């Protein structure tokens, strides 16, 4: 930041010239990005650097507005700068809003672990194709029963909460530097069941053994140690079944106000209710829900991961890999989602097709295929506004309900479409 400021100061006109002043647009962008990411940077240059010293008129305006906000003791970021350009009412916006946000996101990505523009899922191969979870995005995670969509959502939620690091802002408030505070709406499972899954994943003690109490002293010590560590993790669970989009939104706002909020998970869309009359049909109700989730993500400036069921038509096809048309009430879900991810485990279907007779001539062929797909899962990026579609191959340990990057780099493949 200091180098950028010095470059600008070196070329800033101290007196009127009759020719175009030397300029460095990249240095100006770097300076603004640093200020929007850390407001303390403003005071390091404000004594000698004034808006008029910036060559680009757009940069002058951003620097001036940011300075006014900071001197009032408030936080200057793209959101607060936007408020000083007037409240968005659905009409045209000044281009400097978009430029400021782009600069801010680039600066944040530069500082964040892994260089991601969004929040890391904790699964590197997935992050590399998505850039992390982008704020205000509605990310639909779908799959047939048994594919592991809840497990993947739980893994991601815990990874984010466990890696939470905060930093103090200029106004004394806290902000996530890495990871984040996670709100998890578990509409199907109880909070205890969800916690059991996470403990199993972290300790590598089978969740079925934990539920049955079939554990030795060493395993029990693991569970106790894990529970102590987990008490510090900012993961908040709401297990209210059949919650409406209005109730969910109100509780999410309260959580952000009281505890902070960086990521929201909803498991799953079809277990929610809309805000309309009971006479409304289900397609209209799902439209209310997805539209409400999209609006909530924008309002709170957090990514929302919403799980969704797939229709049974998947099972009637020879190729069981899901498609966008397989989303239940797919119109609004596909339209409102910024990202659509499908979880697909070929192992599940291959295992169920095992020949009954081990002496069947087809058995060796089946066995070879099963060995190939065992312990793997595909996350299909079927839609992504910010990037390409394709498939990321992950490891899946069913006994611990855990997804992870494949250990062998040759298997961590991404088929871009």
Would you mind describing this structure in some detail?
With 417 residues, the chain is of the alpha/beta class. Helix content is 43%, strand content 16%. The chain is built from 16 helices and 12 strands. The strands form 2 sheets. Strands 1, 4, 5, 6, 7, 8, 9, 10, 11 and 12 form a 10-stranded mixed beta sheet that branches. A two-stranded antiparallel sheet has the order 2-3. Strand 9 and strand 10 form a beta hairpin. It is elongated.
Shape: elongated
- What is the CA–CA distance across the termini? 39 Å
In total, the number of strands is: 12
Strand content: 15-25%
State the low-pLDDT regions, or none. Answer: 13-18, 408-417
- Rg calculated over all Cα atoms: 25 Å
Mean pLDDT metric: 81
Proportion of residues in helical segments: 40-55%
Order of secondary-structure elements: HHHHHHHEHEEEHHHEHEHEHEHHEEEE
Largest sheet descriptor? 10 strands, mixed
Query: Which structural class best describes the helix and strand composition?
Result: alpha/beta
Count of DSSP H/I helices: 16
What keywords describe this structure?
10-stranded mixed beta sheet, alpha/beta, two-stranded antiparallel ribbon, 417 residues, single chain
Question: Mind sketching the topology for me?
Answer:
Elements: H1 2-11, H2 25-37, H3 40-45, H4 57-71, H5 78-84, H6 95-111, H7 124-130, E1 138-143, H8 149-162, E2 165-168, E3 174-178, E4 182-186, H9 191-203, H10 207-212, H11 217-230, E5 235-238, H12 245-258, E6 263-267, H13 282-300, E7 304-309, H14 330-336, E8 339-344, H15 346-352, H16 363-373, E9 376-384, E10 390-397, E11 402-405, E12 414-416
Parallel strand pairs: 1-7, 1-8, 4-5, 4-6, 6-7
Antiparallel strand pairs: 2-3, 8-9, 9-10, 10-11, 10-12
């Amino acid at each position: 930041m200091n180098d950028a400021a010095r470059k600008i100061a070196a070329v800033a006109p101290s007196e009127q010239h009759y020719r175009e002043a030397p300029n460095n647009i990249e240095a100006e962008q770097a300076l603004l990005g640093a200020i929007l990411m850390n407001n303390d940077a403003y005071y390091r240059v404000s004594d000698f650097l004034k808006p008029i010293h910036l060559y680009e008129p757009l940069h002058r305006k951003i620097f001036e507005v940011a300075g006014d906000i900071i001197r009032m003791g408030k936080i200057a970021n793209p959101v607060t700068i936007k408020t000083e350009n007037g409240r968005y009412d659905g009409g045209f916006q000044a281009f400097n809003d978009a430029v400021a946000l782009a600069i801010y996101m680039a600066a944040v990505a530069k500082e964040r672990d892994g260089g991601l523009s969004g929040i890391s899922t904790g699964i590197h191969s997935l992050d590399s194709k998505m850039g992390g979870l982008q704020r205000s995005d509605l990310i639909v995670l779908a799959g047939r029963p048994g594919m592991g969509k809840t497990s993947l959502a739980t893994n991601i939620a815990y990874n984010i909460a466990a890696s939470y690091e905060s930093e103090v802002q200029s106004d004394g408030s806290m902000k996530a530097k890495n990871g984040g505070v996670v709100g998890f709406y578990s509409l199907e499972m109880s909070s205890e069941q969800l916690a059991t899954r996470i403990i199993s994943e972290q300790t590598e003690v089978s969740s079925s053994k934990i539920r049955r109490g079939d554990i030795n002293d060493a395993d029990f010590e693991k569970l106790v140690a894990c529970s102590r560590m987990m008490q510090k993790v900012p993961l908040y669970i709401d297990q209210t079944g059949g919650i409406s989009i209005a109730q969910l939104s109100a509780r999410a706002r309260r959580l952000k106000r009281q505890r902070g909020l960086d990521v929201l998970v909803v498991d799953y869309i079809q277990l929610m209710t809309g805000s309309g009359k009971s006479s409304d049909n289900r397609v209209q109700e799902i439209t209310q829900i997805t539209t409400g989730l999209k609006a909530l993500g924008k309002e709170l400036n957090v990514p929302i991961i919403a799980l969704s069921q797939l229709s049974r038509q998947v099972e009637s096809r020879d190729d069981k890999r899901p498609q966008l048309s397989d989303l239940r009430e797919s119109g609004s879900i596909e339209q409102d989602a910024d990202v659509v991810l499908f979880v697909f485990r070929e192992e599940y279907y291959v295992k169920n097709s095992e020949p009954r007779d081990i002496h069947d001539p087809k058995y060796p062929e089946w066995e070879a295929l099963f060995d190939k797909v065992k312990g793997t899962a595909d996350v299909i990026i079927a839609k992504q506004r910010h990037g390409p579609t394709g498939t990321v191959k992950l490891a899946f340990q069913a006994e611990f309900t855990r997804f992870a990057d494949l250990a062998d780099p040759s298997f961590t493949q991404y088929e871009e479409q």
